[in-house]
Amino acid sequence: MSDSVLPYAADAEQSLTPDELLVLQRQFEREGPRARIQTKFNYAWGLIKSTKKREQQLGVRLMHEIYDEHAERKRECLYYLAIGYYKMGEYANARVYIEQLLALEPGNAQARSLRELIDQRVSRDGLIGLAVSGGAIALVGIVAAAIFKKRSQ
């Protein structure tokens, strides 16, 4: 499978409409426990693209099942597991799966792009965390100084 078949990493930010996801869900449910691998994959993919965390979690679970049971789909699963964890805010897990894919295909443009998105989010969230921590520390310092000043009077 060529890189052009995988969506660009920007696809990690897009979701299906509820009606589109419902079509995939109905097909998956209609096929039951013996659903074809492509049907299961499509449903997992649709769930991962969702904006709802519970749906993303189910999609990641189904994608893990495919990853464990179907060696021929591992490459695709690595990519979508990385997207799923990225969308759920689990950047360390996202990084694990994207790095596994890049170890197999160092030149995969979509994987490199997704790794960049993950790194940007980690950096941004890290800076936000530092700012919040710094603000909290400053607030504690101000309160402590006010208490100390009041006691010294």
TrEMBL record:
It is a single-pass membrane protein. It is found in: Mitochondrion outer membrane. GO terms for biological process: autophagy of mitochondrion; mitochondrial fission; peroxisome fission. Coiled coil: none annotated. The chain crosses the membrane at residues 127-148. It comes from the Eukaryota. Its main location: mitochondrion. Belongs to the FIS1 family. Has a role in mitochondrial fission. This is Mitochondrial fission 1 protein. It comes from Coemansia brasiliensis.
